[in-house]
Amino acid sequence: MSRIDPTESARWRRRKEARPQEILDAALAVFAEKGFMAARMEDISQRAGVTKGTIYLYFESKEALFKALVRESLAPTIQGVIDRAQSYEGPSRDLLVLVLSTVGSFIRTSDRVVLPKIVIAEAGNFPELARFYREEIIDKGLGLLESIVARGIARGEFRKAEPAHVARLCIAPILVAAFWRTTFAQFDKAPYDYEGFIATHIDTLLRGISAGSKK
Question: For residues 23-45, b (16+ Cβ closer than 10 Å) or e, as one string?
Answer without folding.
Answer: bbebbbbbbbeeebeebebebbb
